[in-house]
Amino acid sequence: MQDFLQKLHAATPRTWVTQAIIGLNVAAFVLAALAGVDIMAPSAQSLLEVGGNWLPYTREQPWRLFSAMFLHAGLIHIGFNMWALRDMGMIAERFYGKAQFLLIYVVSGLFASLASLFFSAANSVSVGASGAVFGVAGAILAALLTDRTNCRRRS
Question: What does pTM read for this prediction?
Fold first, then answer.
C-alpha cells in the first residue's frame, strides 16, 4: 500500500484543485459569517439569505443549486466536510487529473443539490458539500474497482 501511495504522489505531487475547493468553501463560510450567519448554529433563514437551497427560491434562482454546495450549517459541518474532502480529494485528483476531478466535484454537488430538492429542500433549506464529497468518494471507489492493475489477485 505504501508503494502504491508513493507512486500516486510521485505522479501528481501537488493537488492544488483540492486545496482551491477547500479554500472556496472556507471563504464562503467566512463571508457568510461576516454577513451575520451564526458559525455554530445558523438559522435556516440566514442560510437562505446567503444562497441556501430551498425549492420555492431555487425555482426562481437556479444558481442556488451551485451556491448551496459551498455553504455550511456551522463549524462542525464545514470541519468534517473539509477534512473528508482533503483526504479523498487528494487521492481522486491524482487518479483523475485536475480537470476531471473538478468536474466530478461540481457535477456531484449539483446533482446532490437537485436530489436535495426532491428529498428535503422542498420543506427545509439545504446546504453543504457532503453530496460533492460523496461523489468524490464514489469516483475513488469506481477507480479502484475498475482499474484491475491496482488490485491483487486472490487465490
Answer: 0.86
